[in-house]
Amino acid sequence: xxxxxxxxxxxxxxxxxxxxxxxxxxxxxxxxxxxxxxxxxxxxxxxxxxxxxxxxxxxxxxxxxxxxxxxxxxxxxxxxxxxxxxxxxxxxxxxxxxxxxxxxxxxxxxxxxxxxxxxxxxxxxxxxxxxxxxxxxxxxxxxxxxxxxxxxxxxxxxxxxxxxxxxxxxxxxxxxxxxxxxxxxxxxxxxxxxxxxxxxxxxxxxxxxxxxxxxxxxxxxxxxxxxxxxxxxxxxxxxxxxxxxxxxxxxxxxxxxxxxxxxxxxxxxxxxxxxxxxxxxxxxxxxxxxxxxxxxxxxxxxxxxxxxxxxxxxxxxxxxxxxxxxxxxxxxxxxxxxxxxxxxxxxxxxxxxxxxxxxxxxxxxxxxxxxxxxxxxxxxxxxxxxxxxxxxxxxxxxxxxxxxxxxxxxxxxxxxxxxxxxxxxxxxxx
Length: 430
Known about the structure:
Elements: E1 32-37, H1 41-53, E2 56-60, H2 64-72, E3 78-82, H3 90-100, E4 105-109, H4 115-123, E5 128-130, H5 136-162, H6 176-188, E6 190-199, E7 204-214, H7 222-232, H8 235-249, E8 258-263, E9 287-292, H9 300-313, E10 316-322, H10 329-335, E11 339-342, H11 344-347, H12 354-370, E12 373-377, H13 382-390, E13 395-397, H14 425-429
Parallel strand pairs: 1-2, 1-3, 3-4, 4-5, 7-8, 8-9, 9-10, 10-11, 11-12, 12-13
Antiparallel strand pairs: 6-7, 6-13
């Protein structure tokens, strides 16, 4: 389709009539994504089909400006372009490509034996400047090399720039090995702190949440440690360590209380989570796994099956951070948790926010109708406590009652509401 330009466009290869299959069994697009901008129709058509058969995803551009716009959208590994496009010379295209993405591999194809341009193109970062006809096999070899270079560049960028930002208070790491070394030290320095979840009606803790803490100064905060585990592919190791510590601690848990243990969505793929002989599984009837609602579960049906397995072992399931994440009540409907925990962004200042108060009242009613326990976390003031009680929330958690500590601490009675408690919900919703 024309974009209003007056020049004649480059040839756009026709799409294949059937999904191409890679002879090696790779899924289409697994080898990378190639942007084609070629003026020769038969060559473009043949190369497009050959690339798809080799496992590449192929996108096409009619001319140089269209190719640049597509590059701006991202996710291109290799640009395979004519050196003489109708609207842009190859060297000019190369300079503008480098300004957009310095790491994309560029292969220029010329019908002329212009050695000077070839040398200049190579000096400016082109992978190859072809001045002769090449076979499909030669072209595929070059494109695969370009895709490999692109993948390596992405890995270097990930390890050198993303790792430098590990955690809000953690130190910078120059490479993967130094981060891995710090993670090993941190894994040995992990411990659990416990924060009570109280019933204001019963005036006692009904559960304690196990919160990860770490004494390693290089990764001193839970976000820093989690981020490092994600970058190193060590989330299962971290989750296993947390569950082992929880199993050790549960022997000291008050007999009338449950233990809430956080589970990363990726932990649901860990085989030892479902091992009947695992240390924590022996206490499953007293454990509730919290799955954060901020992190979307990629495969909902698989997650439902995994949660059924956990329930069969005796565990309960809680959805954490309800109201802050992707799916909201859809997660509750799909996963059927025994507990939901309101995100503290809804709880904070609820005594002064009538909209939050109405949302919480509605969620409380829905949960009550479905037989789901609702916990309001992040309670820090008496006004928030009293308003939440008036809205129907009896199970509360937050600094008002107790900060996380290495021991199971019962909040002093003075932090519970006087009996009977006068409702302040009407004022909050006013």
